[in-house]
Design brief:
The complex is a heterodimer of chains A (about 280) and B (about 325). Chain A has about 280 residues and is an all-alpha fold. Chain A is built from 13 helices and no strands. In chain A, α7 runs parallel beside α13. Chain A is globular, with a radius of gyration of 24 Å. Chain B has about 325 residues and is mostly helical. Chain B has two domains: about 40 residues; about 230 residues, MetI-like fold (Orthogonal Bundle). In chain B, α11 packs antiparallel against α14. The two termini of chain B are about 15 Å apart. Classes of the chains: A mainly alpha (about 280), B mainly alpha (about 325). The interface between A and B is large, with 104 and 113 residues.
């Protein structure tokens, strides 16, 4: 009896260790290969794309840098991601607050609509947005992409921030109002500091999603000069005779800001991810 | 159910009659906070959908999409669509794609969550790596896997090195294989998300329930099968809907890895609406497909709202 319990425990331990190693292989190896390939020469890749034995070179990075595409693309990515993040938060934070506090029909109808908007395929909204941004003379400008990205990410952001608002006791605001503060003042002074965590979580996720977005960018921007990195990668990969080392160098550079956000906000991302999904 | 538990709900206490009017005025003031969002989403969310609806019953091409008027064709687009072979083929493709993403994504996520539930440095590191993968731009992940799946790429080298195959497999060139490959890569990308949600739910299982079962002599496997799994059912239901939506909406991986091909082998319904519009410049027909994709998603959104409201108990 006791022996059986021990062997089953050993077996279980071995199985879970094996599981961890499988996960590690599945998720670490592709990223390692991306970095390794970006440090290979195209000749070495052509000879054997799977080999890990090679003399590392930064020529791919040097090439995408001197082609002049990388600098502008990185700048465009930063402009799009940061502007989208700021604009989305400006709209979504008050909305999350108003929606939660107004309660009743506002809340249930509002939440249902937000869920629906969040789920609309981007491939569907890109078609009429092309027309609308066209009539507004915003095709070809980063502003058009930012407006479209914000429309796509606002519903999701409200849904992420709302539970944080809900956890702030109404009594705190009432106390502030007894002290003479208006609704706006108590929102700014009392509620905002208490939902700072939620705002930071949402900010990180919006930045990540806006940074990776490319469908709006390739559809609304006619000139590749104004492409962000994500759009550049998507065009580079579908062209003939892909330079894999250059592409992987672009992919590494395009992932660096995500790594940065990830390092700063790792725990928030993990919890915000499951929170936004289920609530 | 979630990793963060916002403290209990603070409902305004029932107020005496005199206060009710003030409460109503207050609610109106809260509604004012919604104005920017309502205007913005009205202009760039609702208004586009109305436009899309109009386009789906009109003849719209590259010449008149931005300027000029759209000739009304009624259900002409829909009629044309039914006879379009690309459309007919996209239906089974979409179903297979979604089934693979949901099946592999959910089972993989559950398995990963069980594995990641154990304490320890390695589990923490693997979880961190998976969350980072989720955060990476899909366009990067798709390009990366296209590279790994080259005929002489890493995947084939490993398979041949292990003696599992004598010849390279043309993953993204053969029709059925391409569909499965892209769907599997997409599942790989969604597993970090499903694993995180499942892991949070597993950590929420009360330890005394497990202790009681252990005292009664339940083995680890029995504990999982008869106690944890039933408790995971509500999360599973919600997660299934979200994963169906995720797989159905998928665009990035298909665009980068196969561009809908070879032929139409990986052209799902949403991808078809994009292709018809922005590659064939038949915006009317593309809009008709897009409306169909929105209807699918609307049904899923309805189910999601119903279920979350019930499990939230409000």
């Amino acid at each position: 009896m006791k022996l059986r319990a021990t062997t089953s425990r050993v077996l279980r331990f071995a199985a879970s260790r094996l599981g961890l190693i499988i996960l590690l292989v599945l998720y670490a190896i592709p990223i390692i290969w991306m970095v390794a390939t970006s440090l290979k020469s195209n000749v070495a890749i052509f000879a054997n794309p799977a080999s890990l034995v090679f003399s590392p070179t930064f020529s791919a990075y040097a090439k995408i840098w001197t082609q002049g595409t990388l600098g502008t693309a990185a700048l465009n990515s930063v402009i799009i991601a940061v502007s989208t993040m700021v604009l989305t938060l400006l709209i979504a934070i008050p909305a999350a607050y108003g929606l939660d506090r107004a309660r009743g029909a506002f809340l249930s109808v509002g939440l249902a609509l937000l869920v629906l908007f969040q789920m609309v395929p981007q491939t569907a909204s890109v078609i009429p947005l092309y027309r609308i941004l066209g009539t507004w003379k915003l095709l070809g400008s980063l502003a058009g992409v930012i407006l479209a990205d914000t429309a796509m990410l606002t519903p999701f952001t409200v849904l992420i921030i709302r539970p944080f608002v809900r956890s702030v006791p109404v009594e705190l605001e009432e106390a502030a109002e007894i002290d003479g503060a208006g609704t706006l003042t108590s929102f700014v002074r009392v509620v905002l500091p208490l939902i700072a965590n939620g705002i930071a979580t949402a900010a990180a996720i919006v930045f990540i999603l806006a940074w990776g977005e490319f469908l709006y960018a390739i559809s609304f921007l006619s000139n590749p000069q104004s492409y962000p990195i994500s759009a550049l990668i998507s065009q580079e990969i579908s062209s003939y005779g892909t330079s894999w080392s250059g592409l992987m160098a672009l992919a590494v550079v395009g992932s660096l800001p995500i790594l940065l956000v990830y390092i700063v906000a790792q725990r928030r991302l993990a919890s915000g991810l499951s929170l936004g999904a289920v609530k | 159910m979630t990793t963060m538990r916002p403290s209990q709900r603070h409902r305004p206490r029932r107020s005496p009659r005199g206060l009710r009017r003030r409460k109503n005025r207050k609610r109106l003031r809260f509604a004012l906070f919604l104005v920017p969002a309502v205007i913005y989403l009205g202009l760039l969310g609702v208004y586009p959908l109305i436009n899309l609806l109009l386009m789906s019953v009109s003849k719209v091409d590259a010449g008149n999409i931005v300027q000029g008027s759209w000739p009304f064709v009624g259900l002409g687009n829909a009629g044309q669509l039914i006879h379009l072979s690309d459309f007919q083929q996209s239906l089974p493709v979409t179903i297979v794609y979604v089934l693979v993403v949901v099946g592999v994504g959910m089972l993989g996520g559950l398995a990963a969550a069980v594995v990641l539930e154990q304490p320890g440095y390695l589990a923490g590191a693997v979880l961190a790596l998976m969350v980072f993968t989720w955060a990476m731009p899909p366009v990067v992940l798709g390009s990366l896997w296209k590279f790994l799946l080259l005929p002489h790429g890493l995947v084939n080298s490993v398979l041949m090195g292990l003696g599992l195959d004598s010849q390279p497999i043309y993953w993204l060139v053969r029709r059925v294989l391409a569909l499965l490959s892209v769907a599997l890569v997409n599942s790989w990308a969604v597993v970090p998300f499903t694993a995180l949600v499942y892991r949070a739910a597993l950590l929420d299982v009360p330890p005394d329930v497990i202790d009681a079962a252990r005292v009664d002599g339940a083995t680890g496997w029995q504990q999982f099968l008869f106690i944890k799994l039933p408790l995971l059912l509500p999360v599973t239901l919600i997660l299934t809907i979200l994963t169906v939506v995720y797989g159905f909406r998928s665009f990035d991986f298909i665009y980068v890895m196969t561009y809908g091909g070879p032929g139409t082998a990986t052209t799902t319904l949403p991808f078809l609406s994009y292709r018809l519009s922005f590659i064939n410049y038949n915006f009317g027909l593309g809009s008709a497909v897009a409306i169909l994709t929105i209807l699918v998603v609307a049904g899923l959104a309805y189910a999601y709202v119903r279920i979350t409201r019930r499990t939230e108990g409000s």
